[in-house]
């Protein structure tokens, strides 16, 4: 099971346990998280009242399971980010050293910038989106940096990559560069230049 911080909501933890085959599929509270994922992807805005009504529960129960709307959105975005990481890992499988890092970053960034629900969220709820996505120590940024660091550490351990700085520091710097390209362009409704973003990120590991 991939690492899930203990501070995450009950709904998110139970969903991750189900996905890893460690828990039974239940209508609730994991279903609340699944419903939030569907709503985020399909609807203009994740409304807690409408989500509670869809599930047939009170708003108080929903908040008890998921935490605040901001926490729920953070965990939804983290979950979607993990899916983008999986795309990056699959695209870079079999490669070594800088080539693997480059392929991972290209597929990861491409998956994010082509995900319209995220771009819509950044445009429509910009202050909240930036707080969730770019706050140092926040769930989303911490997860992305940790997953990038894992790739760097694997290649370093294999002797395929010489790191110029500790992997957490490099991964954090890479994450910040990626954020700058993705979210600022999304806010301006501009297409992100994935190749330029990847080229600059990879200067840190050439």
Walkthrough of the structure:
The protein is an all-alpha fold. The chain has two domains: 10-66, no CATH class; 69-202, Tetracycline Repressor, domain 2, CATH 1.10.357. 71% of the residues lie in helices and 0% in strands. The protein contains eleven helices and no strands. The chain has helices at 10-19, 30-42, 48-55, 59-66, 69-92, 97-113, 116-124, 126-134, 139-157, 167-187, 194-202. 39% of the residues are buried. The model has no long low-confidence stretch (mean pLDDT 91).
Short description:
By secondary structure, the chain is mainly α. It is built from eleven helices and no strands. Helix 1 packs across helix 2, helix 2 (30-42) crosses helix 3 and helix 6 runs antiparallel to helix 11 (194-202).
What's the layout of helices and strands?
Layout lengths: L9 H10 L10 H13 L5 H8 L3 H8 L2 H24 L4 H17 L2 H9 L1 H9 L4 H19 L9 H21 L6 H9 L4
Structural class: mainly alpha
Order of helices and strands: HHHHHHHHHHH
CATH architecture of the largest domain: Orthogonal Bundle
Low-confidence stretches: none
Tally the helices.
Answer: 11
Output the CATH class name of the largest domain. Mainly Alpha
Sheet with the most strands, sense and barrel status: none
| Rg over CA atoms | 18 Å
Shape: globular
User: How many strand units?
Assistant: 0
Helix content: over 70%
Q: What name does CATH use for the topology of the largest domain?
A: Tetracycline Repressor, domain 2
Average predicted confidence as pLDDT = 91
Beta strand %: under 5%
Distance between the termini: 32 Å
């Amino acid at each position: 099971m991939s690492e899930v911080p203990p501070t995450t909501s009950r709904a998110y933890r139970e969903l991750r346990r189900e996905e890893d085959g460690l828990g039974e599929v239940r209508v609730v509270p994991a279903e609340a998280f699944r419903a939030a994922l569907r709503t985020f992807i399909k609807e203009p805005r994740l409304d807690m009242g409408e989500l509670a009504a869809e599930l047939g529960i009170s708003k108080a129960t929903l908040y008890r399971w998921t935490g605040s709307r901001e926490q729920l959105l953070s965990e939804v975005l983290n979950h979607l980010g993990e899916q983008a990481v999986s795309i990056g890992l699959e695209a870079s499988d079999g490669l070594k050293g800088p080539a693997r890092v480059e392929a991972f970053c290209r597929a990861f960034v491409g998956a994010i910038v082509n995900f319209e629900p995220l771009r819509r969220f950044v445009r429509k709820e910009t202050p909240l989106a930036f707080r969730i996505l770019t706050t140092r120590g926040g769930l989303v940024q911490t997860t992305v940096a940790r997953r990038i660091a894992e790739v760097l550490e694997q290649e370093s351990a294999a002797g395929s990559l010489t790191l110029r700085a500790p992997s957490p520091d490099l991964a954090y710097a890479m994450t910040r560069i990626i954020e700058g390209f993705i979210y600022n362009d999304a806010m301006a409704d501009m297409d992100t230049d994935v190749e330029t973003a990847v080229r600059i990120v990879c200067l840190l590991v050439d």
